[in-house]
Amino acid sequence: MDASRIKTELLAGLTVALALVPEAVAFAFVAGVNPLVGLYAAFFVGLITACIGGRPGMISGATGALAVVMVSLVSQHGVEYLFATVVLMGLIQIVVGLLKWGKFIRMVPHPVMLGFVNGLAIVIFLAQLGQFKVPDGAGGLTWMEGSQLYLMLGLIALTMAVIWFLPKITSSFPAPLAGILVVSALVLGFNLDTRSVGDLASIAGGLPDFHIPMVPLTLDTLQIILPYAVILAAIGLIESLLTLNLVADLTGTKGGASKECLAQGTANVVTGFFGGMGGCAMIGQSMINVKSGARTRISGIAAALFLLSFIVIASPLIERIPVAALVGVMFMVVIGTFAWTSLKIMHKIPPIDALVMVIVTCVTVYSDLAVAVVVGVIISALAYAWNAASRIRARIGTSKEGWKVYRLTGPLFFGSTTGFADLFDPLNDPEDVVVDFIDSRVVDHSGLEAIDALASKYLAAGKRLHLRHLSPDCKKLLAKAGDLVEVSVLEDPDYEIAVDYGHTFDRAEKTT
């Protein structure tokens, strides 16, 4: 690795670390814990996942998706129960990684991915609006007005302009970091009256200490923390694995889903024992990192170490950075994260895909990511099942023995059993009827039940039903069913090439 690559990685890591500070502080406030709890989580989760995660260049830390779940636990039981929950959350994620369940993320359809990206972009945007509120003197917050608002907007616009135009001039320096430095120099040089990081909270602190969560080791404690741990583990893994796929697409590389699950779990176990609030992958910071040119683990490791140095050594300097500069960076992340092409293709893709995209976006904004993804996958799966159910049909012909042959096309499963039954005419069919599965397959138990019901109808009419060309997995299903399917299964001879069984088919197909 040459010096230029190392420089790019370190500068990208510094940019990410600066952007992590207000995010970690804000999410700590959301969860109802001390800002250092969020900062320590960002350090440990970011460092460990950068070292052993499944996607070099991806950034992890304390996130809002987890914080909104934690708030009720902290308010009801205290921060020690949160630490214990984070440890259990990590253990659950490790188990998921060991079982290699992370591979099921490939079941998430592309419209769900687009909805997730768009929803998360909106969430990141809405999270920045809180920076436009200031204390009103009565213990509450009020929106900025007048010159204070105009100055804030001007500095944000300047940051975004630097980030937009600098890459057109040079790519040797990360544009987000340049935007932060330019605006910080302007504010400090002209002593402009605008909010800084220090106005949010002090980030000064020492090195994190090992701390065993002070909770009773009883079943009552487990009953309290287990539901939260399961929810947090699911949200954390879904967000992390979707971010992993997104970063992999942006960089043209592949990521290891199971490896990422193990890394996230390990990071959260360690974080829980060092007084952190836990975390997962952060799409906003990951986008900053990738857009800054980072492609290796160095940037993530550097970001975590820079963040720790901010806490221990450089807090007075970091606290002077204008909030407007960091908001400008995040606004550019929003622009880069939102899948604008999804708006152009809405009228070109199937209506159900467009609906899924919109629903996932809305649920991500108004609920949380895990619920949104589950809802999107369920809707997509139901739509696929409905479409597949309508595709079962049969070509009807006659074999050389004079038997009537139904040559099926399409899968036989729970959604197509009704259509399957409607294809046949047991009362008027001849003595022997063949169901040829050469272009079909039995998928599930409902398919077996449908065959059994059909066989019963033919037996009741004094006729015989035969099955042909069952694929190996279909035969396996029938073998498992035992006496459930009482039909005569005609074993076809071994063959290497197409065999002519003497079937003559009508041109017309029978469909449902």
From TrEMBL:
Q: Which domain of life is it from?
A: Bacteria
Q: Provide the transmembrane region boundaries.
A: 36-53, 81-99, 111-129, 149-166, 173-192, 224-248, 298-318, 324-343, 355-386
Q: Where in the cell is it found?
A: Membrane
Keywords attached to this entry: Membrane, Transmembrane, Transmembrane helix
Domain named STAS is located at: 401-482
Which coarse location class describes where this protein primarily resides? membrane
Q: How does it sit in the membrane?
A: Multi-pass membrane protein
Q: Which Pfam families does the entry link to?
A: STAS (PF01740), Sulfate_transp (PF00916)
List the PANTHER family: SULFATE TRANSPORTER YBAR-RELATED
Q: What is this protein called?
A: Sodium-independent anion transporter
Organism expressing this protein natively = Roseibium algicola
Taxonomic path: Bacteria, Pseudomonadati, Pseudomonadota, Alphaproteobacteria, Hyphomicrobiales
